[in-house]
From TrEMBL:
Gene3D superfamilies: Vaccinia Virus protein VP39. CDD domains: AdoMet_MTases (cd02440). Residues 47-145 form the Methyltransferase domain. This is Methyltransferase domain-containing protein. Keywords: Methyltransferase, Transferase. Pfam families: Methyltransf_25. The keyword Methyltransferase applies. It comes from Actinokineospora iranica. The lineage of its organism: Bacteria, Bacillati, Actinomycetota, Actinomycetes, Pseudonocardiales. GO terms for molecular function: methyltransferase activity. It comes from the Bacteria. PANTHER family: TRANS-ACONITATE 2-METHYLTRANSFERASE-RELATED (PTHR43861).
Length: 293
């Protein structure tokens, strides 16, 4: 399934990073399953997936909670909710999934009941005030419930240091340019607040036992075709966003590497890899205090 950007109506910068989020989610799915494990989503449980993208984590959660459980899928983008429901139907779990269209910038999602767990991956960092968004998500939990945020990790490495085109270190400079693009995009919005470490934000939101863990994503060369397609897509998207921050030589080198008509096209290379680490931060809502007798 491909969700094209022109079908989508989200503010620039907040959507999925590529035009085919389902393909990207499939490549990262194993890592996602490891990162959402602290939720301990169980048969009959009630959980939320905030910013589900194409819905692969929603489907995984719906399988875990089973017929008697519920997964609220919350997204500002109706196309993402359509994609999530289509994925849930294909997996035979649509009855457990409840789509809710909501923008986190407008406050906490309006869920009809407290939930045992909230999962949110690569979504909250789009909001202007991470503290406010995390407080809102923490407030959705029942006492003892778990918030698990997959945010941050390591930059992805796909190319050798010397890609044979342009100056060595092309990918490191792309990270730097992309970082400058994101920083400028983030801060230019009215009301954008300086960010802090996710763990501190979660603890200040009242969560306890806050901790982080990482999942390595390691696909060595030669990468299979599905991974190659996602790597090419992600690189093209990153180069597109960072364009204004790359120098002319680097922009020209990337144009060659991403052009199927050029002999240097990454689609033909045998030395492409996918190596990265993703991080999840999780914390528990304090259990209700029992009155002392
Ligand atoms: C980069 S995608 C991540 C998708 C998926 N969770 C993953 O990890 O691959 C971000 C998702 O969050 C949604 N999103 C971004 N900003 C949002 C906001 N302010 N409120 C609700 N959803 C938002 C986007 O529409 C998209 O579905």
């Amino acid at each position: 399934m491909t969700i094209t950007e022109d079908r989508r109506a989200v503010p620039p910068g907040v959507g999925t990073s590529t035009k085919n989020p389902a393909a990207a989610e499939a490549v990262f799915h194993e890592a996602t399953l490891r990162l959402l494990a602290p939720l301990r989503a169980m048969e009959g449980g009630v959980v939320a997936d905030v910013g589900p993208g194409a819905g692969s984590a929603t489907v995984a959660l719906a399988r875990l909670v089973g017929d008697r459980g519920r997964v609220y899928a919350v997204d500002l983008d109706p196309a993402m909710l359509d994609a999530t429901m289509a994925a849930a139907r294909r997996a035979g779990v649509a009855d457990q999934v409840r789509p809710i269209q909501h923008d986190l910038e407008d406050g906490p999602p309006p869920l009809p009941e407290p939930v045992d767990g909230v999962w949110s991956s690569a979504c909250v960092h789009h909001t202007r005030d991470w503290d406010a968004a995390v407080r809102g998500l923490a407030g959705l939990l029942r006492p003892g419930g778990v918030l698990c945020l997959a945010e941050g990790g390591l930059p992805t490495r796909c190319l050798p240091w010397d890609a044979g085109v342009g100056r060595p270190g092309l990918e490191v400079r792309l990270d730097e340019a992309h970082n400058r693009w994101f920083t400028e995009w983030f801060a230019a919005r009215p009301g954008a607040r300086r960010t802090r470490h996710w763990g501190e934000i979660m603890a200040d939101a009242g969560l306890v036992d806050v901790t982080s863990h990482n999942a390595l994503v390691d696909v060595p060369a030669p990468v299979p075709d599905d991974v190659r397609a996602v790597v090419l897509d992600e690189l093209a998207a990153r180069v597109g966003r960072a364009t204004g921050f790359l120098d002319a030589d680097d922009a020209a080198a990337w144009a060659r590497l991403l052009d199927p008509a050029d002999p240097a096209w990454l689609g033909r290379r045998t030395d492409l890899v996918l190596l990265t680490a993703r991080t999840a931060h999780w914390g528990r809502s304090p259990a209700r205090m029992t009155p002392q007798g």
